[in-house]
Structure of Glycosyltransferase family 2 protein:
Amino acid sequence: MRHDTLASPAILDTSSLPLEVAVVVPTLNEAANVERLIERLSLVLAGRGWEVIFVDDDSADGTSDLVRRIGRTSRHVRIVQRVGRRGLSSAVVEGMLATAAPIIAVMDGDLQHSEEALPNLIAAIEGGDADIAVGTRYMAGGGIGDWDEGRARMSRFATRAGQLALGTHVSDPMSGFFAIRREAFERALPRLSAIGFKILLDLLASSPEPMKVAEIPYRFRTREAGESKLGARAIADYAELIADKTIGRFVPVRLIKFLMVGGLGVFVHLAVLRSVLGAGSGFVAAQTAAVMTAIAFNFFLNNSFTYADRKLRGGAIVAGLASFYAISAIGALANIGIGTWVAGQQERWWVAGVAGVLVGAIWNFAMSAALTWRK
Ligand code: GDD
Ligand code: MN
């Protein structure tokens, strides 16, 4: 071991031991924190075979380069650098897939999760029969630190929502600090949503049979360097995760979003129709303007809401919009054709209307998924 070349003398290299535990750390602009985190991990995990895997979404502050530099002298330290990708949960899943360790811990890279609790999390799995050990803030010995009342209340509300929707009794299902047995992770893997940032909730809800959970208290620390990344988008992602884990079993959440956008498009259509007619235009011209506007409206809202994760930008928008117009035109023909056919089969006019709309909408959804927003 060449300690003299280590980035920090506190990072001891004991990497010749068999690998027992991997710590997966998602990072986005945490260059000010990772070195201290590695030092602290090497203290609390001393004597074990361990590694830490940073999964960095190409941070602008050079987090990946910094981790690589430390990794050149300590085999405990690894990096997965993702380019053109975003998302805490998916980063954690990729980190978990990148290790051979039998126990995988997950913690934040900003020193808010207290590493002193880490050995307890690991011990609960090694020593006991828990599949997963969860660091909890809501238990004697734990705490939420100095969150303001607003964030504390929001967290309590989201915690209740998660517990109710998923029928879990874990006291802190929102925690980003836990350790899991590799087999338990692998059993949940095929059903993971990996949306947003609540990977623990996702793992618990995706397990084919309920996981055996141990709870270990910890105190959530104040962030000292860098800033929190969880804003309004995180709340929308959370709602989507809950939807995916509940109704998502029956209908894809993306289809629901697409239909919601389509519903709003009807209002846009009517508003344009009314104002163009009001301006003295004939019906054909007004209806044409309304259709064209509503399709464009649907395209842009689907692009930033339904397909936020595959959003078309720049020049791709022109091609995307053109394909969406073409698809919608065929969808409209299918709508009319099916509607007419159903109207000939039975008496209720509205059944025919709804049938046409549904077939047209499903056509639009399927074709735009395959062409406009193809992967
Ligand atoms: N790779 C990657 N990609 N990492 C991310 C991303 C992302 O899109 N967004 C955030 N991170 C990293 C941050 O760099 C940090 O290491 C960690 O994920 C947590 O992000 P913060 O922005 O610090 O979140 P927080 O402190 O508001 O909330 C955290 O702690 C709560 C309590 O445990 C999260 O872990 C919550 O899920 C958790 O409830
Ligand atoms: Mn944080």
